[in-house]
Amino acid sequence: MSKSFCLRCPEQKNCPRCRERCQLIIKKKLEAQKKIFFDQLTLGERVESPQATKLPVKFAISLLKDRKGEIRLDIPMTGSLDDPKFSVFKIILQVLGNLLAKAATSPFALLSAMVGGGEHLEYAEFEYGSAEVKGETLNKLKTMVKVLQDRPEIRLDIEGHVDMEKDREALKTLFFQRKLKTQKLKETAKKGQPAVPVDEIKIETSEYARYLKKAYKEEKFPKPKNFLGFEKDIPVPEMEKLLLTHTEVKEGDLRDLVSQRSRKVKDFLVREGKIEPERIFLVEAKSLAPEKKEKLKDSRVAFRMK
Question: Is 93 left (phi over 0), alpha (psi -120 to 50) or beta?
């Protein structure tokens, strides 16, 4: 029968009161959970050495260190005491090395392991044609706020993107709707009603055909004429089709959408999270369209920690 005992107990018995924290040795095999605590860990001057690590030690520390300047790690240890190469110190160094590598390659996954949900924070998706922060994007940003608040040394890059096809089509629909809403806004202004942003105008079903016709008449593109050469009345679906066909979405409109998304995200983090604005940077992407990722919309912003 194997013997197990707790190294924390003077009588070396299997102590149920501290079993979660104790180190158990069974048949000379160590099974332990080592808690390591660093307080106010700082780096000295950089030293050039062939043995020095190339991994981002300073960045890793900023990920691990909380607002109090403390780092708490739970390190699992397993090994045989009969193994001459077994060393608790080597295990700790190996774990620390793995943390540095994780910080370099997958910082959000490292955060996920520490605080939960971090792996999903690397991106925030948007509805096509929209820069509104809501739904799942809002929830992600609230989590990001907590991360940035608890790790004051982290800085964040925000890089916006669009879906070149779906965002373009959504913007075309948005611009089409604005043409109709502009007609109603003009009408209400003549009646002395206070002006409101055009996107806040609501067009009821009963009003739709009237404002569509007004918007159609203002457009300068060639329109169907009767045999006398005058513009003729056409059905609502045909007016819609012609208006949409001649509603142009330029590359500059897509760039504006990218900028709006990045700006809205930063404003939320600064305003709602009380995050210092100098910690958040808006980065212009090399391409409007991002790298394709499975199950992820192109209509998104990407985050990079540094």
Answer: alpha
Distance (Å, rounded) from C-alpha 161 to C-alpha 123? 11
> How many Cα atoms are found within 13 Å in the side-chain-facing hemisphere of 70?
6
Instruction: Answer whether 292's CB lies under 8 Å from 302's CB.
Output: no
Q: Which domain holds residue 281?
A: 119-165+252-305
Q: Is residue 156 part of a domain?
A: yes
Query: Where a domain ends, among 56, 80, 105?
Result: 105
Give the pLDDT score at 1.
Answer: 38
Is residue 217 classed as helix, strand or coil in its secondary structure? helix
Residue 72: partners with Cβ closer than 8 Å, 6 or more residues away: 35, 36, 37
Assign residue 155 the CATH number of its domain: 3.30.1330.60
Beta bridge partners of 158: 282, 303
CA dihedral sign, ordered 281, 279, 152, 258:
negative
At residue 113, φ and ψ (nearest 5 deg) are -65, -25
Tell me, what's the pLDDT at 269? 95
Q: What is the pTM of this model?
A: 0.71
Closest to 182 (Cα-Cα) out of 172, 170, 195: 195
- Regarding whether 138 and 88 lie in a shared domain, the answer is no
Structural element, H or E, at residue 64: helix 57-64
Q: Which residues fall within 8 angstroms of residue 249, CB to CB, at 6 or more apart?
A: 168, 171, 172, 175
Verify that 96 and 21 share a domain, yes or no: yes
**Which strands make up the sheet holding 24-26, listed edge to edge?**
24-26, 29-39, 70-80
Give the mean pLDDT per block of 10 residues along the chain (306 residues): 43 47 54 60 58 56 64 62 63 61 66 61 93 92 87 90 97 96 92 89 95 94 85 92 95 97 96 92 94 92 89
Number of structural domains, the chain?
2
Let me know if residue 183 belongs to a domain: no
